[in-house]
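> @MW can you paste both from yesterday?
MW: sure, first one:
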Amino acid sequence: MSTDWFYDIGKPRFIVAPMVDASELAWRLLCRNHGAQLCYTPMFHSYLFTKDHKYRKDSLVSCKQDRPLIIQFCGNNPEVMALAAKMVESQCDAIDINLGCPQSIAKRGRYGAFLQDEWALLRDIVKQMSQSVSVPITCKVRIFEDIEKSVKYALMLQDAGCKLLTVHGRTREQKGPLTGVANWKHIKAIRDAVSVPVFANGNIQCLEDVYRCLDYTQVDGVMSAEGILTNPALFEGVNPLTWEIALEYVDLVEKYPCPSSYIRGHLFKIFHKIFNLNENDEIRQLLATGQNIDNFRYVCEEIKKKYADYHTGILQLENYENITHSGYNLILPPWICQPYVRISPEEHTQKIQECLNKLQDKLEKRQFEDSQGNLISRKKMKKLQRKSRRPFKDNQQNGRSGDICINETCPNPLGGKCQYQLCKKCCRNKCYEEDLDCTGHKIMVHTRKLIAIKYAENRGV
């Protein structure tokens, strides 16, 4: 199969990424309405797709306007992946293999970026899928640290039958707070080495970034994920009003339903700058607890009602200057769609270190030493402090002389009133052994024995 298929679908340059729980039909159509030329479905698990009819029915929802479309699968079994591809080939323009997911669930399931070291298995998967269907098989990958290895990896997939590569310019380890900046040099090197179409993914927050990437890497198209979640009109080159784009999405959801968790997630991304303001905690809570389309529409309308007059200039946002300089660094007003900017890995590492230092300081403050210099617990230290605050009592006041029990093997203090000059334990033993009484310790062995004898005689025993 040549690259003719790529021209047949219009040689798209603006692509919406496959996003779990986020690139459902309503969202794809919204992005298409605002400049996107090609969309991917969310990632589907190949095994579940082939075995579970309900999963298959709920996952793959499309319509006539939803083309060109690439369906993405994950998995590690060539036969299962090929079967899944066969089941959808008539409903899409290409089928993608997810080799880029870096999340822990992908590691547990042995798919995504955690297959990038198993080249023999990947060759088999790409080959079997390519032979099973009439549409192209594509791959979405992450780079290795080494450019040469990244290029060899891409060439291996191309030789196995891959007809298009989407290259995410980050390594498997670059995720979450350690995401950092994508490396376009790797993408450019791969573009120069392979003959199949290449899409670039990473560092796309506005249309200017798209053109910079196209110019630098010379790829065929640019894919956006995080950037397009906060501004669905990214490929149109505009920053729309948040409530307008949100209401347009809600209208599409009403026509093409999806789980409420998807809707909630999208609206949180669109309104992320609005919800950074403390004054909107109540509206944020309404969105967090919303369960149906009317709840979500109400949130959009409330935000519109609150900020529309500020946007038109009828009202002036008195605290806007303070908001701008209070850590948000807003270039655009908060009611305009704009990128979400992550802190750098260096800043994240610094914050973690600061937290660890504070924790260490707290732990050090909670450590105490006794009079011998030994570390003791906070509880024991408090007990010692309470004891030290008690008034001093002379041993004589307690009836104690301070002397030790006369039993040579006993280290205990003697009882102050013991007539035998013993501690209570030794006194008890002496009284039992020698049939004695000790009034000081109130140990009356001899007396009790006499009482018992007299009682027995009275009973005639």
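MW: second:
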Amino acid sequence: MLQAFADAITIANHQNIDIYNPDSGEGYQRAPVTARVRKAARYYDDKQGRMPNPLLINIRKKDMDEQKVAVVVDVDQAGYENAVLQGGNWIGTGRIGFTDDLELWIYDGQHRAGGLNQLLGDHEGYENFPVPISLTLGLDPGEEMREFYEVNTNAAPVKTDLAWQLLTKMAEDDPELREMLAAEDRDWVTRAYAVVDELEKLDGPWRGCFQEANRRKTRGDGVTIPKPQFARSLKPVLDMPSFKRADAATVAVVINAYWTGIRMVMPEPFEEASDFVLQKGSGAVALHRVLPQVIEVVRSAGGRLGQPEGYAEVMRELPTLEGESVDNDGQRSIRSGADFWRVGSVASGFSGDAGRRRLSLLIQSRLPSPAETIQL
């Protein structure tokens, strides 16, 4: 395996990708996604070609056997050849030459390679751009497939909590990034994180409840929900027209008043929050999905969005939610009030996005309609 550079036009002229064919069973690569190719092209163009990740490329054994490739090093050719024969290591500089009909098999980085192809077709000046590559010499297609499998199954992506935290931090100092996120309708992520940061400063139900990136949860720490999960649950609220341009501190005051109002009508789940799902994923997602309707009811009744009393009035029927639960002994019972939200009880059964959507609809059924409070 050699670390090298090749100009973009050489990569374009010699590349090949062994895409899996479901009819013949041959190949191993997934089919390219046009949107990802375009995104890679935009990234190369915006960064003036800077892409630190190398393409993983193989020159297959049959081409090596046919001597279509020559490696010439600047110093210590014998040392290089001995390392190849003995399976050892060698450090130095040199050049790789090959025939015009040689195929460079890309086993990781096909969308980046496709992005380069698009740039070469759309813009001038990229022909000689040096593309970093990691080049294996002499793998057969089966070994190449195993390399593809290892790369794509063992690589661990950055966890969402850290990725979103980094995105928020970068956007603070980068106006172009903020504009790009807004244009792609992804600025809600950074706005949501800003709201959570402001919410943590307020005296209310959520202080000390968020799990930060790279921080382990410990018994009795009061943490109930990962920060990105709570931030994601805020999207329906942040998408409301009145909150599109609202500053984070204002939105945090509204969120805090809403949950304080909920605590006023049903205090028990907040006293031992870890024993209930109300302040975990299911509760946060479902209750934020209904918050836009709650806000409209509070407004139509003349209430102020920063005062918890208006929310408590709208949510007064929340304790009437009930459902059937099965305990460890297999006994069925109807649970309502705080018990509805206890871990292992009814609310715990509303898992996944579909379950949380059903839970929000169930909550919604206990809310007054904004139309009921409108006076003409």
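> thanks! The radius of gyration is 29 Å.
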